């Protein structure tokens, strides 16, 4: 698998969307004004200036940036330059595997350091963590936390090194020490956090940015922000872990605070400066929420193609490739848990597998996808579709639910389309065709049993003068079998969230069959969903309902839901986090926030749910009925900004240093910038979104 770093992926303004010259060149010009720097990195990896005051937790994304007051300045972590100098000291100690005695010259902590966390990992051993040592500043160790934390880390790590107890041990120890990845976090001054419960305290923490310290009497327990990321734990869990270090009784925080004797419990949050090596032999980098902030300029044509390629590689890596009992045709594995180095579930649900196959097929069908990559991805998509028809005892039958059947049919339709467009000269696989064709019939039966769109009785009476003959609808669905006159009935148990995908499958299969009755029924289902879904909730039906609509409309015909889709898009962009609003959290820029932002810090932050509408917003960009020439520049910028956020969620080399087996995670898309689980669903949706954006750019230049 290629290394996914994108550090030099055509960041120049002139590289913007090579073929969409005049429109996307302007976009990159705008992007130059909206560039998101790497906070606190000085002349960082992208050569950008640091964000003033970076390193603090900031406010919830979307709120206006305020002028820092004195309290905010106190929350800053130690200065970047001082932390880099301190890291160099730690590196020299680790490479020599020896820490100087207390009081030695040049061992003092950087100014305003309230604690240090030193983590050591062994490169080339699946990201194995050798040691993690935390030392918080007290009156007894003030100025000496860096040295003490490094000494403790070396002591913890040495027994875990792959060394024999013989005469060569010391020489081998120094050799292995050169391969140790060093990760140091420097805590700023702690600030008390109000709250009567641990959950209340946790809700005030910025995940991946704020550390937490619990103090009781003279003892303290602390969890640093990057440690939360590498352990993949929430702020609430981190508060519990910090309290557990003090062996506190499991009672409400309010009771602990009121403990007699003046030794009550207090909880603090602190900002931290994170300096780490992300690869063996590499230089130290100042990281932001465990990685780096992806610059908007990187989202040019080549950057998007590289992103899509990495995601496709990741999806292909989920394919079962075991031997013996493990060689069963199980399709794709589930999402990857970086903490346990496992896939959960071991076999992905049918819907997730089918959507992944659909995304791989769509990527394989892109004009600019290299032939070898296209062949590989198309082959995996076909394999997954086929293996879903063979139900193993460890799998769920796709036909057991209407969504399973619908998702399989959508993958089947996409694979069929791409086969005709790009692989028409491939030899016929009769066995594959036979299995897939038979399963297609069964899946269609499940679909039709789950929803019906019959003709209303009064419509039948009105047609008695026509001899009772079924008349096909006229252009756009208007005629004796007008879809608006059909009654749509859903089977019990089919939830509102499942219906858009079912409608999309009905539309896709009807459009492919040229069956006018099937098209009329599908139109009725689509119209009913647009009619019954509140405008503010339409985004949750994307991309499936949008694609269902487009499948049933001729290229030159008006789009019935044009206004509703435009309003849905406007709502998305109104909830998009801007670079200005996310000055304290620049990695959030471009994300779309669907929650109100009350109750917890994370409620106001964007997550992988941004990806749900993104694929169809890309489709809208390529259709002049939904995006006019006058609107194109504005809509391209909005879409590319959200694709930047999707890229921010992806695991690249700068994030992979915290993951046990980077090869299983690279190119995958996480659930959130603070949640390291690599999601099969999120990766598939992001790949569909990038593919639609690239395809639309191609369409608008023809």
Question: In total, how many beta strands?
Answer: 14
Number of helices: 23
- Give the percentage of residues in beta strands: 5-15%
Shape, please?
A: elongated
Please give the domain count. 2
CATH architecture of the largest domain: Alpha/alpha barrel
Q: According to CATH, what is the topology of the largest domain? A: Glycosyltransferase
Mean pLDDT: 84
Rg, Cα atoms, Å = 28 Å
Class based on secondary structure composition and strand pairing: alpha+beta
Helix content: 40-55%
Summarize the main sheet: 8 strands, antiparallel
Low-confidence stretches: 1-73, 459-480
What is the first-to-last residue Cα distance?
Answer: 33 Å
Q: What is the CATH class name of the largest domain? A: Mainly Alpha
Write the layout of secondary structure elements.
Elements lengths: L20 H13 L36 H5 L5 H17 L18 E8 L5 E9 L8 H13 L11 H9 L2 E8 L3 E2 L5 H5 L7 E7 L2 E5 L1 H7 L3 H11 L7 H5 L7 E12 L8 E3 L13 H17 L17 E3 L4 E3 L5 H15 L6 H18 L13 H21 L7 H21 E5 L1 H6 L23 E5 L8 H15 L2 H17 L11 H8 L10 H13 L36 H11 L7 H21 L3 H4 L12 E4 L2 E5 H20 L3
Antiparallel strand pairs: 1-2, 1-3, 3-7, 4-7, 5-6, 5-7, 7-8, 9-10, 11-12, 13-14
């Amino acid at each position: 698998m290629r290394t996914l770093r994108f550090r030099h992926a055509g960041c120049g303004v002139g590289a913007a969307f090579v073929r969409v010259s005049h429109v996307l060149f302007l976009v990159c010009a705008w992007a130059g004004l909206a560039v998101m720097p790497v906070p606190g990195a000085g002349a960082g990896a992208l050569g950008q200036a640091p964000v003033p005051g970076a390193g603090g937790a900031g406010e919830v994304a979307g709120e206006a940036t305020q002028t820092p007051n004195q309290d905010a300045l106190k929350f800053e972590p130690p200065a970047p330059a001082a932390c880099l100098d301190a890291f160099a000291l730690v590196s020299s100690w680790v490479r020599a595997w020896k820490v100087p005695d207390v009081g030695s010259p040049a061992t003092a902590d950087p100014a305003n350091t309230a604690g240090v966390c030193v983590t050591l990992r062994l490169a080339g051993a699946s990201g194995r963590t050798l040691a993690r040592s935390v030392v918080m500043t007290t009156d007894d160790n003030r100025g000496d936390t860096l040295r003490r934390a490094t000494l403790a880390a070396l002591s913890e790590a040495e027994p875990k090194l792959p060394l024999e107890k013989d005469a060569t041990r010391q020489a081998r120890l120094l050799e292995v020490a050169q391969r140790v990845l060093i990760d140091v976090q420097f805590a700023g001054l702690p600030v008390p956090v109000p709250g009567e419960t641990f959950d209340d305290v946790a809700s005030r923490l910025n995940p991946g940015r704020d550390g937490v310290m619990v103090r009781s009497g003279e003892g303290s327990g602390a969890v640093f922000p990057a440690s939360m990321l590498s352990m993949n734990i929430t702020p609430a869990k981190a508060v519990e872990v910090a309290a557990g270090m003090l062996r506190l009784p499991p009672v409400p925080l309010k009771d602990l605070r009121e403990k007699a004797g003046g030794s009550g419990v207090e909880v603090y949050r602190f900002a931290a400066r994170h300096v780490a090596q992300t690869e063996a032999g590499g230089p130290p980098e100042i990281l932001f929420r465990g990685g780096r902030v992806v610059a908007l300029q990187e989202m040019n044509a080549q950057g998007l193609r590289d992103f899509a390629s990495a995601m496709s590689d990741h999806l292909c890596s989920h394919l079962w490739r075991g031997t013996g009992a493990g060689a069963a045709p199980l399709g794709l594995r589930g999402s990857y848990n970086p903490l346990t180095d496992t896939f959960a579930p071991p076999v992905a649900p049918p819907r997730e597998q089918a959507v992944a196959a659909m995304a791989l097929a769509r990527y394989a069908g892109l004009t600019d996808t290299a032939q070898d990559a296209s062949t590989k991805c198309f082959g995996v998509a076909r394999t997954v579709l086929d293996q879903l028809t063979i139900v193993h005892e460890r799998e769920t039958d796709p036909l057991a639910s209407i969504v399973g059947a619908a998702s399989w049919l959508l993958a089947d339709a996409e694979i069929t389309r791409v086969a005709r467009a790009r692989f028409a000269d491939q030899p016929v696989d009769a066995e594959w065709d036979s299995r897939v064709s038979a399963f297609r019939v069964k899946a269609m039966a499940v679909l039709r049993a789950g929803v019906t769109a019959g003709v209303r009785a009064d419509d039948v009476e009105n047609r008695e003068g026509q001899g009772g003959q079924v008349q096909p609808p006229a252009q756009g669905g208007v005629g004796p079998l007008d879809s608006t006159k059909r009654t749509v009935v859903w089977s019990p148990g089919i939830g509102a969230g499942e219906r858009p995908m079912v409608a999309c499958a009905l539309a896709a299969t009807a459009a492919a069959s040229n069956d006018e009755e099937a098209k009329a029924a599908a139109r009725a289902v689509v119209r009913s969903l647009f009619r019954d879904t509140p405008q503010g909730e339409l985004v949750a039906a994307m991309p499936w309902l949008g694609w269902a609509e487009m499948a049933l409309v001729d290229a030159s015909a008006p789009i019935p839901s044009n206004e509703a889709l435009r309003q849905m898009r406007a709502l998305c962009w109104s909830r998009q986090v801007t670079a200005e609003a996310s000055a304290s959290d620049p990695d959030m820029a471009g994300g779309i926030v669907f929650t109100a932002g009350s109750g917890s810090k994370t409620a106001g932050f964007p997550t992988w749910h941004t990806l749900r509408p993104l694929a169809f917003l890309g489709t809208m960009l390529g259709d002049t009925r939904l995006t006019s020439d006058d609107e194109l520049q504005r809509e391209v910028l909005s879409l590319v900004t959200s694709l930047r956020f999707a890229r921010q969620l992806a695991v690249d080399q700068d994030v992979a240093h915290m993951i046990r087996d980077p090869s299983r995670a690279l190119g995958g898309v996480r659930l959130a910038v603070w949640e390291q689980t690599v999601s099969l669903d999120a990766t598939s949706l992001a790949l569909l979104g990038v593919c639609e954006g690239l395809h639309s750019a191609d369409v608008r230049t023809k």
